[in-house]
Write a structure and sequence with these properties.
The structure is a homodimer of 616-residue chains.
Chain A (H helix, E strand, L loop, with lengths): L21 E5 L3 E2 L5 E2 L2 E8 L9 E5 L24 E2 L4 E2 L4 E5 L14 E2 L4 E2 L9 H14 L5 E7 L1 H12 L4 E7 L7 H15 L17 H15 L2 H8 L18 H16 L2 H13 L6 H9 L4 E7 L7 H13 L4 E6 L14 H28 L5 H5 L9 H5 L3 H9 L5 E5 L5 H7 L5 E6 L2 H9 L3 E4 L14 E7 L8 H11 E9 L4 H8 L26 H11 L2 E9 L4 E3 L3 H4 L2 E7 L2
Parallel strand pairs in A: 5-8, 5-11, 6-7, 11-12, 12-13, 13-14, 15-16, 15-18, 16-17, 18-19
Antiparallel strand pairs in A: 1-4, 2-3, 4-8, 9-10, 19-22, 20-21, 20-22
Chain lengths: 616, 616
Amino acid sequence: MNDDLFESSDSVRSAHELKYAQRVTFDEPLRLECGSELPEVTVVYETYGQLNDRRDNAVFVCHAISGDSHVARHDESDDPGWWDIAVGPGKVIDTDRYFVICANSLGGCRGTTGPDSINPKTGRPYDMDFPKISIGDIVEVQQRLVDYLGISRLLAVIGGSLGGLMTLDWTARFPDRMAGAVVIAASARLTSQALAFDIVARNAITNDPRFYGGQYYDKEQGPVVGLAIARMLGHITYLSRESMVRKFDADRYTGRNIDTPFETAFSVGSYLAHQGDKFVERFDANSYLSLSWAMDTFNLGNTQRELVDRLRGTMCRWLFLSFTSDWLFPPFQSQELVEATLRCDKRLSYCNVQSDCGHDAFLLENELDSYGGMIRAFLQNVEKDVLIEYEEAETTVVEDNESSQETPPDAPRGHFLVEGRRIDYDEIVKLIPLRTKVLDLGCGTGELMQRLKNRRLRRVMGIELDETSVLESLRKGLDVVQADLNAGLKAFEDKQFDFVVLSKTLQTVLDVDLILAEMLRVGIRGIVSFPNLGYHRYRKMLAEQGLAPQLDDTSTRKWHNTEDVRFLTIDDFRDYCTEKGYRIHQTVALDTEQGVSVTYAPNLNANVAIVVISTK
Amino acid sequence: MNDDLFESSDSVRSAHELKYAQRVTFDEPLRLECGSELPEVTVVYETYGQLNDRRDNAVFVCHAISGDSHVARHDESDDPGWWDIAVGPGKVIDTDRYFVICANSLGGCRGTTGPDSINPKTGRPYDMDFPKISIGDIVEVQQRLVDYLGISRLLAVIGGSLGGLMTLDWTARFPDRMAGAVVIAASARLTSQALAFDIVARNAITNDPRFYGGQYYDKEQGPVVGLAIARMLGHITYLSRESMVRKFDADRYTGRNIDTPFETAFSVGSYLAHQGDKFVERFDANSYLSLSWAMDTFNLGNTQRELVDRLRGTMCRWLFLSFTSDWLFPPFQSQELVEATLRCDKRLSYCNVQSDCGHDAFLLENELDSYGGMIRAFLQNVEKDVLIEYEEAETTVVEDNESSQETPPDAPRGHFLVEGRRIDYDEIVKLIPLRTKVLDLGCGTGELMQRLKNRRLRRVMGIELDETSVLESLRKGLDVVQADLNAGLKAFEDKQFDFVVLSKTLQTVLDVDLILAEMLRVGIRGIVSFPNLGYHRYRKMLAEQGLAPQLDDTSTRKWHNTEDVRFLTIDDFRDYCTEKGYRIHQTVALDTEQGVSVTYAPNLNANVAIVVISTK
């Protein structure tokens, strides 16, 4: 078979050898959530890289439904791993730096105890006697392994899809056992749509006449049609509509001549037939039932409130990632997790990565620069947190660790005088006292946040829409959540921050009323900076020249292509605050063209205003 | 069974009696697209209402994959029809007004010739000998029926989903046989994703051991598992993610105790099991294979160019409808059809109806007011076209038919003087010569278009984003396409119109460069009207009061909540045209506050400008 058509994210095409796999059996019975008990549990796992002396560089990777312990090649001659693109020396999850652990899950069919394992009580495979397991049961076994490896706290747990559910469960079940968690393309529970596909898949398996009620291990053939149908359905849900167009539309009517009982008339049919047939060779139908059931019954909370209750006790720093075209675990579900985590006031970052590759995007190279860069930066940030903790424990008195090593960014003192910029950042920094909590709305690449971080604040986080800016902020060690301000700040609790900053962003926001109301709900004080339409040069331009004033920083932007959509004077803003019942505590007026602050007639003489407001 | 859970758009739950159905057999052999031939064809059909004397009030309704001839009840005691919400006395497709015909499709299993019919050559059912049919073959049979009923031209053909594909085929195959066509939730060809679901469904049927290669009619049981799996998949794709949440999430873990071989643990599972089981009782697996194959091989064109070639010869007026949450026949596919039809310069309207009900939305009451209102208005518009044609044929000399019956809308002469409005419409109407083709961008409820229509123009059509405005325009007898101007006008050919009007819309558009470039590509002349920021009152407001000018018509709108996002003076626009190389042919400057036109210093004295431009 040598046809591009058949390539998929499922690089594990056949039952490869696990020559680097290790095996450990825990004799203590495992009590399961369903009430049953397994008398013993065997775990097959693989490790990569070296555990350091402080035993604090271990990263646990959780696999998706059809994966196994073989996350990556161990050497050139090794079989491909399912996440080779991300795990390896110098890669995103850098095995030169981290000790990476990946284990076949409980219920799986690649060595860890599952339906095809021998039940020590009967000497025969468990098959239908294998109890119904939960994600929690899977994680309990993973935790036994981590104990066994002598690791008291993981640097991070990371997983996508089913592995993302495991990661979520880890954080809630063993909150003190990891410094960071990376949850990719996952959710608090499946949508009814995703659940429905799993149900149809299970119906196809269990109603296949060769299923024999699950006792097919001694038969000539198991439920190969049902399992293949299940896999075909899976593959449709892993791809996006767009990626299917790209993959199949050019030769839609060109079937491939492959040996299969399934329809091959269309290119997409040949692909599905191939994927179905291959899967049957390497996977066990009972395992598929077991793991898909665990996935379907996972529920971190039916409501936002329940979700918040489950996440409140977690102690890790978070990175959530979703993909715009993922319809199996759609972005809004990651956003629900993000909102609940924000409500618990945890440190987190989030990005909905622009991709047309669907759910499988995290297994593909297409957007690796973006989401991979974020995972890399996040792991380094967590590593730094752990180092600081270690140093704090060693020295007891700590100086502001980062101010020494991280110099302020590329903004020399004189810069703002030349181009009339940055002076507003200086003023905003001055307005914020030490030991406060600050939220920066529309934080861009994190320049203001970085300045604030170098001061002693309790918490700084940002909201930004642009994906590359989110990545930049993460690289600066910051926490940033990708979101559209026009949708409000519903994730945040009332008065969760001392200051909420809206710096040179008000004029680009369509729903001014909403964003100001929200910033004053979420923050005790709001700091708003905006260009002042009342500036004398702008007034003259309209009054004398009869032309629309150009307020945009970038002088190439005129009325027809500026990003600004709202135009106001300082007095307009004052009137607005009066009308809304907002109190103005302080107004800093600047003439950034002259590089001076303005006290006389600011509505005429300042081109930028910084206003501190509150609800009363 | 009395549980809301089991309600679905599939109101035809069991094999109902077709007591009002009629039957006709055509003895002439039917040559099929695949090359085979059927020696004779029987058609089962139902009719509603009365054919009028001119035989020009017949509406042919095409059904979807699991439908049949029973589109609606014939009386109170009759079984429910599959589209009772839309067809009946006084309803959207008003049987007091129209003669409605609906026939079971070729390949179906409700009386019309299909796989379960007796092959006259063998005296046994066709089963696997039934040839592969196409949508075209289905339509050929429908056309025979229409001939048989003595109807030379239908008022309209209408259909959704598979019925939408039939409607498309009708228009291309028999272009002179219908005055109108309503194409709902359809496409020129399936997406690879939709195709993939059909393929998995067919694999489930043909790999069911009880399929017996299709020869199961004399067996105790046919491929009931495979057909049920196919139906479950279908039901998932007919619903949207949102509607599944609404239907299943509240009692997600509450299965129903129903007698079924399928999984019932989750509410959605019980629903799918029920739908699968019920379908098997009323539908034939071979018919499902036959009709889904016809659907999958339908292709009105692989490229936009091929599509345009297929549609160029059509002669009907069009209404296309899609639903925002339909992911089986997603809106972009209807938009491809709309764009191709626009390129052919046909008369058409289109709306992407806001709905969270998915593909099945057209079978549900939820948005009936909206899409139903559009279908009703469209049929009345087509009826009027047909009447005008008839009268033209009778009288040879025709006066402007509509000016007499349609008086100008609610805008008495003095109105614009009072509130400073409408005067710009008067001026625009004056600028447009008779017998020209006009496109109105952002046409609203069609007020300007209606004024233009009352003049002798060759063609007037509008683009509008707001759904209720689209409905209003349709009700005025106008053609309007729902689209976002910010996305450009790529559907239109170069210089397709004489005039393109952008009336008081420029200031609300973000991408000014794009929309002006597009209007001058599509039109020989562009007419742009906009509020003039240079008006003396606005200048004074900024210069003297230091407040942002309020240009918005509605005086409650200020800087923070105006819909305007672009602010320009007449001189700004002049400079812009110079920069872009656009030629200004004429500028009409108005002071609508005074109700006068302005000739002296328009940039200072006019609050509204109307400018006629072209590319050179």
